[in-house]
From TrEMBL:
First and last residue of the signal peptide: none
Name of the gene this protein is made from: frr
Full protein name: Ribosome-recycling factor
Keywords tagged on the record: Coiled coil, Cytoplasm, Protein biosynthesis
Family: Belongs to the RRF family.
Function description: Responsible for the release of ribosomes from messenger RNA at the termination of protein biosynthesis. May increase the efficiency of translation by recycling ribosomes from one round of translation to another.
Species assigned in the record: Microbacterium mcarthurae
Main location: cytoplasm
Coiled coil: 126-172
């Protein structure tokens, strides 16, 4: 039972770390990256649809991204969704077949602003991991009558080490993203 609680907590924490890394990837750096466009929802025939389901994304150059829609009638909607995306700061161009997105150079102030945004996302992810730890601790405390005190203490120490490892993984991903953002 204790192993089940710890395994479940570990799996949930793994998912929280992966979600944080995906969230970090959506923050713009100096280079064009198709992952930045993963969270863009396009109003396609009245329903919000992820951009990746409507078009292929290619990176022909370091700061250029080409969006090639499968359905050419969605071109205007894709262009508008990219333009309206917050924290992206790009102006896409539409030539009738594709949407070309050129990333402008980031100013130092904008880089610092993005670092603050990434740090906030990192802190949110750490809070999520700590909440998962608290829930797992409550689940362990509920098993108090069924297992011995020593096993419970051992399980809590293991839970703490798992939590620490996941928080460290978030910190490491955060550090890499900050270095990427501040790189000129």
């Amino acid at each position: 039972m204790i192993a089940d609680v710890l395994a479940d907590a570990g799996a949930r924490m793994d998912r929280a770390v992966e979600a944080a890394k995906e969230d970090f990837a959506t923050v713009r750096t100096g280079r064009a990256n198709p992952q930045m466009f993963q969270k863009i929802l396009v109003d396609y025939y009245g329903s919000p649809t992820p951009l990746a389901q409507l078009a292929s994304l290619n990176n022909p150059e370091a700061r250029t991204l080409v969006v090639n829609p499968y359905d050419k009638s969605a071109l205007k909607a894709i262009e508008q969704a990219i333009r309206d995306m917050p924290n992206l700061g790009v102006n896409p161009t539409n030539d009738g077949n594709i949407v070309r997105v050129t990333m402008p150079e980031l100013t130092e102030d904008r880089r610092k602003e993005y670092v603050k945004l990434v740090r906030a996302k990192g802190e949110d992810a750490k809070v999520q991991v700590r909440n998962l730890r608290r829930k797992a601790k409550d689940d362990l405390d509920a098993l108090k009558s069924e297992v011995g005190e020593d096993e419970l203490v051992r399980a809590e120490k293991e839970l703490d080490s798992v939590t620490r490892a996941h928080v460290d993984a978030i910190d490491e991903a955060l550090k890499r993203k900050e270095a990427e953002l501040l790189e000129v």
